[in-house]
Amino acid sequence: MDINDRDSGERDGDVWSVRSVELPVESRAARFYPATDLADAFSIRLPDDATTDPEQLARFLFAQQPPWIDGLMKVRDALVAGFGIKTSGQLKAAPVTERHPRVGIFRIYETHAHEVLLGEDDKHLDFRLSVLTQPAQAQRGRRLVLSTVVHCHNLLGRGYITLIAPFHRRVVRATLTHAARRGWPAQQAG
User: Fold this and answer.
1) pLDDT digits (tens, 9 = 90+) for 19-43
2) What H or E segment, with its residue span, contains residue 2?
3) pLDDT digits 0-9 by tens, 92-145
4) What's the pTM value of the predicted model, to 2 decimals?
5) Nearest Cα to 44, choosing from 168, 188, 178, 166?
6) DSSP per residue over 8-70, as a string?
7) Is 84 left (phi over 0), alpha (psi -120 to 50) or beta?
8) Which domains are seen in the chain, by residue range?
9) What is the DSSP letter of 81?
């Protein structure tokens, strides 16, 4: 196991196991904000034949999440609407531009060979979500790492992130596991 792994739950060959890991140093998310109010990263093994295109993986991850996440988002939207926080409906309806295309509710800020940086800015907080592919190392296969960093602007943002952090971590883990069970998109030949 990698020294940066926080959980030891992954068994060799268990391709559905999600591990909590340190923010990857090579990730742009790790250095996006000078200070963060939330920073976490979760990793899952990618099969050898899976694509390493981070944008394709991001689209796959967020295209079909477990159904309970949609229900949780509806509850979240009902609770935050009165505070002027953007709802998932508002985020989905946000204009798609050439400069900032979208993946589901997330705006794409940067695209690189091994990482796509998604996120959103709002009056209470800004966040970035990294979808990063890592090559195989030693006895580890290729990895997909989903990292989140949040920078709060005010008390509303800090209160919000405190309340949703436990749900956020469960959603990330469930999203990765659900994608692995569905079967990752394959690498394109050529």
Assistant:
1) 999 999 999 999 999 999 999 999 9
2) none
3) 887 777 777 889 899 999 999 999 999 999 999 999 999 999 988 755 778 999
4) 0.87
5) 178
6) --PPTT-TT-EEEEPPPTT-GGGGSSSS-SEEEEEEEEPPTTB---HHHHHHHHHHS--HHHH
7) left
8) 18-68+75-182 (3.30.530)
9) G
